[in-house]
């Protein structure tokens, strides 16, 4: 297991370097010189050249990238162009919000999908209902579902706050009340898509020879299901969950914007709107590292469940 983790980490570093360099070079070609952004479009060419020379923006892209990644490795992510605050101080309060939202979304999606579809495989009468809910959950957009939840639970029933975010220090109940609708909005797609993958694999696994042999030995259907079928049917769900983490970031951007949550997604939207070059680069680096580490965790979990991967 440790050797597998070491190999994955060894491959992770060059991939991150390549991806961050591509993003860095693309950002410079897209946004142009950071000096123009700092001074404004009406700045004189002489002032832009002076600022470029002062901060090294006139150097080759590779040199700028090495200088930026070396500073980022030491925790220096630069200063925001729009607010002049250190980028690290802007990220520190936003990371826990998005991290909590993403973890709650994945855990709820896995729990609901496995539980609901395990019940559906044993009770055929509810299979059409769960299938219909899964199809609707996969197709409905996040922003539409969020708007429906706000209208239903905030406007009509007045059970939950409309938007905003409350820290844990304000009280557990208040915090959870603000988290219910964002978590439901973000996790609905993943719960339904995980369920479709799990049920298809469950049906395929249930027809394999070793499952038929377990039934022939006289084992109960419950024991066959939870001891033999489920551990094998859940493997593609783990893989799919790891591959969905990049898409989860995009869903978090929409969800945090709808519910006005001060997370990474909302900060990314505001920084792109203001062409805040250092903040966009820092957020891109953070998202790439987070998705890569999450995929590494999914690989190790898959190897833990499936011993063949460790060979």
Can you describe what's shown?
- The chain is an all-alpha fold and 311 residues long.
- It has 2 domains: 2-85, no CATH class; 94-261, Orthogonal Bundle (MetI-like fold), CATH 1.10.3720.
- 77% of the residues lie in helices and 0% in strands.
- Helix 6 crosses helix 9 (172-206), helix 8 runs parallel beside helix 13 (245-258) and helix 14 (264-273) packs antiparallel against helix 15 (277-305).
- The chain is globular, with a radius of gyration of 24 Å.
List the helices and strands and how they pair.
Layout: H1 2-31, H2 34-39, H3 45-55, H4 61-73, H5 87-91, H6 94-122, H7 127-139, H8 142-156, H9 172-206, H10 209-216, H11 221-233, H12 235-243, H13 245-258, H14 264-273, H15 277-305
Helix pairs in contact: 1-15, 6-9, 7-9, 8-9, 8-13, 9-11, 9-12, 10-11, 12-15, 13-14, 14-15
- Arithmetic mean of pLDDT: 81
Uncertain segments are none
**Would you identify the CATH H-level superfamily of the largest domain?**
MetI-like
* Percent helix: over 70%
CATH fold description of the largest domain: MetI-like fold
How many angstroms separate the termini?
A: 9 Å
CATH-derived architecture of the largest domain: Orthogonal Bundle
What share of residues are in beta strands? Answer: under 5%
Shape: globular
- Helix/strand-derived category reads mainly alpha
Count of spatially separate domains: 2
- What assembly state would you assign to the polypeptide chains in this entry? single chain
Major sheet summary line = none
């Amino acid at each position: 297991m440790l050797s597998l983790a070491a190999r994955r980490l060894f491959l992770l570093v060059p991939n991150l370097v390549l991806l961050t360099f591509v993003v860095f070079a693309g950002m410079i070609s897209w946004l142009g010189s950071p000096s123009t952004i700092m001074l404004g479009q009406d700045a004189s060419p002489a002032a832009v050249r002076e600022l470029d020379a002062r901060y090294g923006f006139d150097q080759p892209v590779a040199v700028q990238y090495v200088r930026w990644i070396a500073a980022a490795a030491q925790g220096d992510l630069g200063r925001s162009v729009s607010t002049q605050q250190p980028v690290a101080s802007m990220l520190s309060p936003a990371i826990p919000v998005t991290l909590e939202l993403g973890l709650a979304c994945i855990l709820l999606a896995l729990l609901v999908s496995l539980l609901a579809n395990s019940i559906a495989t044993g009770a055929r009468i509810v299979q059409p209902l769960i299938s219909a809910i899964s199809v609707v959950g996969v197709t409905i957009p996040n922003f539409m579902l969020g708007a429906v939840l706000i209208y239903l639970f905030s406007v009509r029933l007045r059970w939950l706050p409309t938007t905003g975010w409350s820290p844990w220090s304000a009280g557990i109940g208040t915090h959870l009340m603000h988290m219910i609708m964002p978590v439901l909005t973000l996790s609905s797609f993943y719960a339904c898509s995980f369920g479709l993958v799990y049920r298809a694999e469950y049906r395929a696994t249930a027809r394999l020879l070793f499952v038929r042999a377990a039934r022939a030995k006289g084992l109960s259907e419950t024991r066959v299901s939870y001891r033999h079928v489920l551990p094998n049917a859940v493997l593609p769900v783990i893989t799919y969950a790891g591959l969905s983490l990049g898409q989860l970031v995009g869903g978090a951007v929409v969800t945090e914007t709808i519910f006005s949550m001060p997370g990474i997604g909302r900060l990314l939207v505001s920084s792109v709107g203001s062409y805040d070059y250092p903040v966009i680069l820092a957020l891109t680096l953070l998202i790439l590292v987070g998705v890569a580490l999450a995929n590494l965790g999914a690989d190790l979990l898959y190897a833990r469940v499936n011993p063949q991967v460790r060979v």
